[in-house]
């Protein structure tokens, strides 16, 4: 049957099956909900946000009547404040059993006596003996609620109800919102209730059942405004309209609420539902009488245009059950991940706190564990073995700071580059290089070398040479002049070495502090730093500075010494390069070519051979002092390169590595613990009161989360089975639009009204060539073209729609 046939009003005979009995009473569904409720009873909701349906609305919106219709329990109903805490209603289909009632402690800090009072509240009563009003009053007293100091509580009253007519469903009823105070509730209580309700609504895994009374102006009811503000896309809100019988037949208000129920005004993905509850006159009628009156109301008047799946408690219970089941199965992976993160966090805290340590032996054992962990992690950081989870991700600044070897390697590489780029006083350049030929990346460094041409530098050397004459022959020079030139050229070394040693020391302090923070508490860390780590680091730093001075001292005083053949090779290479340039210049001048030409066309050119030879070899320096200055400068530059490489390596190996890195793991070695006196051990490792409390909290949290993880692992089997079951509830249409998911898009397909007859057939898929992943099985609708058309042939009611899913390529399949 096509959409077009439905739209044209084809006569079709249907009879609606009892959707309340399809699948939602299965053992798998019960097991699924039982696991979640058991987790909540163990207190896991203090740490993990669990999927739940929260019932919220204005005071006197009919929330109590909704819960009464669903559960069959008589909830107290009056115009003033009814509940001052959340009430959790757990419904299970099964044999009749006593109702279990207890209080689950909330997030408030409680004394032992208060917790014991809540634990002693637990009772079991039969359905006949249940006086819920009295239970609520007793619960208020147990929670410490009174009209003077405490009006509301974060504790939860929990009712577990089992019966053959009950659905598998769990609901959380919240106090009603109100906008004005009264004799029984102050203006301050307005914000208190609002804060409690909004805290539940803001939990991203909660399904919001927003109860709206048709007796009141819709715009004056704040619950849907809050729902739309918190659930901005309307993905987890189901609207529920109560008291539709209070509307005048044919009025604009009735038309508005019918449009609202059809999801045509305020639109939610889960749509809307309508209940007709008992009024004051029929408050003492039985539940069966209530159901008959509701069925009669929705079968007459304008309300009969609504889909039977969106009216009445008979369809509300399975609808809520499926919504809750779907929410649990959808959120299960995220809940598991959050639990696993919480378990790891608790373990980290417990590892940090260590075992209880009240005696000297326990404290000494704790310090031994710390020293072993410290030495192991610091050695791993020094060795560059970052396999321990402590090191985290290198992509983060925190993880990089812990990788001490990586920090050291990068810092020493920067040091070597800084020494090569900024380690000399003068940058001697040829006359052909312009001052601004190339942008220097060290341009803005204050200690940037001063650029000087070789000709000008030789003039400085010539002056120094004349002032240092001894008994050397013309054209030669006193060897000590090389030392004078070198000492002036290497002046920036000491400042650069100090700059980068400070960076390395700072990196070591950062890494050591991070290691201690990881393995012990803040109080023990501070004591260890003060008594052992900082004094040890100061000794290592002192050794480092002494070694640095030892390395630099030979280059700061005395004459140059080296037996490295690289010295003479460098001098010869420099002189060869200059001679090569002079020959090139002479040939260019001899043949009349420009000096900048690099290649020339082969031509015949007559020349005098002796003239050419004279040109090539006749460039002797007549000024013997100039020759001596040039040679001295060549030797200085060559020796500078040799000394620079040695200093960089010696600083890295003999100073940083030998004096700092190698001794680091021994700053707090295990053998040091054995030499610490009893009083000092107590001062370092004695446990503070808040640490014992933190250990108890983390131990309890770890126990609850690990139990929850085991149960949820089991629940995965049920959820995987449930996702393969057919959907039992045709949902009313939602005009929200297409889903934001790219792989599965939702569109609407009309489903016939209640008077049509259904036949259950094998699953039908229109496009077998491509399906959405793991589609649920569907019941095919087989139409018999006989009797009733729709009310409006031109446009079938949108509330008779059910979902279709479309793949990326537009292929459609029915569910």
Short summary of the structure?
By secondary structure, the chain is of the alpha/beta class. It contains 23 helices and 14 strands.
Question: How would you describe the overall organization of this protein?
Answer:
- The chain has helices at 3-7, 27-41, 63-71, 112-119, 132-143, 187-201, 222-230, 252-261, 287-298, 313-353, 360-383, 397-402, 404-422, 454-467, 480-489, 493-519, 522-556, 566-591, 609-617, 624-661, 670-673, 678-685, 689-722; strands spanning 52-57, 86-93, 99-104, 123-125, 156-163, 169-173, 206-213, 237-242, 272-274, 426-429, 450-453, 745-750, 801-806, 812-814.
- With 815 residues, it is of the alpha/beta class.
- It has 3 domains: 1-17 and 736-815, no CATH class; 49-330, Rossmann fold (3-Layer(aba) Sandwich); 374-563 and 645-681, no CATH class.
- The strands form 3 sheets. It has a 9-stranded mixed sheet with strand order 4-3-5-2-6-1-7-8-9, with helices on both faces. A 3-stranded antiparallel sheet has the order 12-13-14. A two-stranded parallel ribbon has the order 10-11.
- Strand 8 (237-242), helix 8 and strand 9 (272-274) form a beta-alpha-beta unit.
- The longest helix is centred in the middle third of the chain and has 41 residues, at 313-353.
- The model is unreliable at 1-24, 435-445 and 726-815 (pLDDT under 50).
- InterPro entries: Dynamin, Dynamin_GTPase, Dynamin_N, Dynamin_stalk, G_DYNAMIN_dom, GED_dom, P-loop_NTPase.
- It comes from Periconia macrospinosa.
- Keywords: GTP-binding, Nucleotide-binding.
């Amino acid at each position: 049957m096509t959409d077009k046939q439905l739209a044209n009003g084809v006569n079709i005979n249907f009879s609606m099956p009892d959707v309340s009995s399809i699948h939602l009473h299965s053992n798998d569904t019960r097991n699924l909900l039982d696991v979640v409720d058991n987790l909540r009873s163990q207190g896991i909701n203090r740490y993990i946000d669990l999927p739940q349906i929260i019932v919220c609305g204005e005071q006197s919106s009919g929330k109590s009547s909704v819960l009464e219709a669903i559960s069959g329990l008589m909830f107290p109903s009056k115009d003033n404040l009814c509940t001052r805490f959340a009430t959790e209603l757990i419904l299970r289909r099964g044999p009749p059993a006593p109702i279990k009632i207890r209080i689950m402690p909330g997030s408030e800090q409680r004394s032992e006596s208060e917790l014991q009072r809540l634990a002693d509240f637990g009772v079991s009563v039969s359905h006949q003996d249940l006086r819920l009003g009295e239970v609520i009053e007793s619960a208020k007293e147990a929670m410490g609620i009174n009209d003077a100091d405490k009006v509301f509580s974060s504790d939860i009253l929990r009712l577990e109800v089992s019966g053959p007519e009950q659905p598998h469903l769990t609901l959380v009823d919240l106090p009603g919102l109100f906008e004005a105070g009264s004799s029984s509730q102050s203006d301050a209580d307005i914000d208190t209730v609002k804060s409690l309700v909004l805290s539940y609504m803001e939990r991203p895994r909660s399904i919001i059942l927003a109860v709206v009374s048709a007796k009141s102006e819709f715009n004056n009811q704040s619950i849907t405004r809050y729902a739309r503000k918190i659930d901005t896309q309307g993905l987890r809100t189901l609207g529920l309209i109560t008291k539709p019988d209070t509307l005048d037949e044919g009025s604009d208000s009735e038309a508005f609420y019918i449009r609202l129920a059809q999801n045509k005004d305020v639109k939610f993905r889960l749509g809307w539902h309508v209940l007709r509850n008992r009024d004051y006159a029929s408050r003492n009628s039985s539940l069966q009488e209530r159901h008959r009156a509701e069925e009669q109301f929705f079968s007459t008047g304008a309300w009969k245009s609504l889909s039977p799946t969106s009216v009445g408690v008979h369809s509300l219970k399975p609808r809520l059950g499926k919504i809750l089941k779907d929410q649990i199965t959808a959120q299960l992976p995220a809940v598991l991940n959050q639990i696993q993160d919480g378990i790891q966090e608790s373990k980290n805290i417990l590892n940090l706190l260590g075992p209880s340590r009240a005696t000297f032996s326990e404290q000494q054992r704790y310090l031994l564990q710390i020293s072993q962990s410290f030495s192991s992690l610091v050695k791993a950081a020094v060795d560059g073995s970052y396999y321990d989870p402590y090191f985290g991700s290198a992509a983060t600044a925190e993880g990089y700071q812990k990788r001490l070897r990586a920090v050291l390697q990068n810092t020493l590489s920067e040091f070597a580059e800084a020494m090569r780029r900024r380690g000399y006083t003068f940058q001697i350049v040829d006359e052909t290089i312009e001052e601004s030929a190339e942008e220097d990346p060290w341009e803005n460094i204050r200690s940037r070398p001063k650029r000087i041409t070789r000709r000008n530098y030789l003039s400085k050397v010539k002056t120094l040479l004349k002032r240092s004459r001894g008994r050397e022959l013309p054209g030669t020079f006193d060897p000590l002049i090389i030392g004078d030139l070198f000492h002036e050229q290497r002046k920036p070394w000491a400042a650069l070495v100090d700059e980068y040693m400070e960076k390395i020391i700072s990196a070591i302090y950062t890494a050591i502090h991070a290691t201690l923070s990881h393995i012990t508490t803040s109080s023990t860390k501070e004591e260890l730093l003060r008594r052992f780590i900082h004094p040890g680091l100061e000794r290592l730093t002192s050794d480092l500075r002494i070694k640095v001075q030892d390395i630099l001292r030979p280059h700061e005083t005395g004459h140059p010494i080296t037996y490295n053949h690289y010295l003479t090779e460098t001098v010869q290479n420099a002189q060869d390069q200059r001679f090569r340039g002079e020959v090139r210049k002479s040939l260019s001048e001899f043949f009349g070519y420009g000096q900048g030409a690099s290649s020339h066309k082969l031509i015949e050119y007559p020349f005098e051979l002796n003239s050419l030879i004279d040109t090539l070899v006749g460039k002797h320096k007549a000024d013997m002092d100039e020759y001596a200055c040039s040679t001295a400068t060549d030797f200085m530059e060559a020796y500078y390169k040799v000394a620079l490489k040695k200093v960089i390596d010696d600083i890295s190996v003999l100073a940083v590595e030998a004096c700092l890195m190698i001794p680091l793991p021994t700053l707090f070695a295990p053998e040091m613990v054995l030499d610490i006196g009893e009083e000092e051990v107590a001062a370092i490792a004695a446990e503070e009161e808040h640490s014992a409390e933190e250990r108890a909290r983390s131990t309890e949290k770890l126990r609850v989360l690990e139990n929850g993880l085991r149960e949820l692992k089991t629940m995965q089997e049920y959820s995987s089975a449930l996702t393969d079951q057919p959907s039992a509830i045709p949902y009313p249409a939602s005009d929200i639009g297409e889903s934001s998911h790219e792989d599965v898009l939702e569109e609407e397909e009309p489903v016939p009204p209640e008077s049509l007859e259904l036949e259950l057939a094998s699953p039908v898929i229109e496009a077998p060539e491509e399906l959405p992943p793991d589609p649920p099985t569907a019941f095919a609708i087989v139409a018999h073209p006989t009797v009733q058309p729709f009310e409006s042939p031109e446009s079938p009611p949108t509330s008779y729609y059910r979902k279709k899913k479309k793949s990326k390529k537009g292929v459609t399949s029915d569910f």
